[in-house]
Amino acid sequence: DRLQLLNFTAGGLPDGYPIATAGNRSPVNGMATNTTLLYTAVLRNGVVGGSYVYLDGRSDATSGLPGFTSSEGAGLASFTLGNIAPGSGYRGNVEIGEVLVFDAALEEDGRQTAEAYLRRKWLGVASVWADWPILPAGAAVRVDTGATLDLGGTAQTAATVSGGGAVSNGTLTVTGTLAPGGTNTVGTLTLACAPLLTGATLDVKVTLEGACDELACAAELSLDGVTLAVAQPGALNLRKRYTVVTCSATLLGAFIETNLPEGWRVRYDRTPGAGSATLYWASQATVLSVR
């Protein structure tokens, strides 16, 4: 029921806009203000005292609405936000910048992550929330092709990073797997920031035609302690070379090679500004020169 998200129809209450609470309504503390607010409703229908409203990340006696009971009702055929104007019976003018709706109640890490994104976008990185984490602990991040994950100038840690997009503006530590392109598509994952990958696995896909996943780094990159794994070693073509890493700064270190078929090697080019790591097949035959 949309009235369990936000109810604008009773703005005359002392504390402003209410929310439906198990057939009743309760004012959301701190809503009667002209200040820009970040509003989050976490609903766990049927759980006694299990639902909360947060204003600017707080849910207490002065902000939000802690510990109320919500229940799933018949709902309404349409969901309209922002139909508010002077003289309409609603309190003042309300401009809604962005609405995110999830199909399950977010846990604490998920809520903080969503709110951090909204704070940076609508309140700016100079706000008091600028040092809040973007990525929750153990995050599995997918950055789609054409998209960029902005770390906001901070050091962030993710368990896994996949996709064909880019990560920028900060320091990224990956503790698990880097999977360029994603699950099925061969692609390039760009790290336009400083990466710390020791202990991580670069999991690359290759094709018989010579295409492969690529990790492209615009900062100094060390491969020491990084495991290289080919998702389908049987797809390696002896007549092809596969460049799995490019680095437009300085390339350091070497992979831990795990599942390369016999005869396959990694060649490292450490040219400043144009480093790379390329898979190639080296013939095991002995060449004799006879005169």
Q: Approximately how much beta-strand content do the residues carry?
A: 25-35%
- Give the total of beta strands: 18
Distance between the termini: 90 Å
Helix content: under 10%
Mean of pLDDT: 81
Oligomer: single chain
Key traits:
three-stranded antiparallel β-sheet, 18 strands, 35% strand
Blueprint (SSEs and pairs):
Blueprint: E1 18-21, E2 24-27, E3 39-42, E4 51-55, E5 65-68, H1 108-122, E6 140-142, E7 148-163, E8 166-180, E9 188-196, E10 201-204, E11 214-217, E12 221-222, E13 227-230, E14 242-247, E15 251-252, E16 256-257, E17 264-269, E18 275-281
Parallel strand pairs: 6-7, 7-8, 8-9, 8-10, 9-11, 10-13, 11-14, 12-15, 13-16
Antiparallel strand pairs: 1-2, 3-4, 4-5, 14-18, 17-18
Describe this structure in words.
The chain is mainly β and 291 residues long. The protein has one helix at 108-122; strands at residues 18-21, 24-27, 39-42, 51-55, 65-68, 140-142, 148-163, 166-180, 188-196, 201-204, 214-217, 221-222, 227-230, 242-247, 251-252, 256-257, 264-269, 275-281. Strands 6, 7, 8, 9, 10, 11, 13, 14, 16, 17 and 18 form an eleven-stranded mixed beta sheet that branches. Strands 3-4-5 form a three-stranded antiparallel beta sheet, with no helix packed on it. A two-stranded antiparallel sheet has the order 1-2.
Outline of the structure:
It is built from 1 helix and 18 strands. With 291 residues, the chain is mostly beta strands.
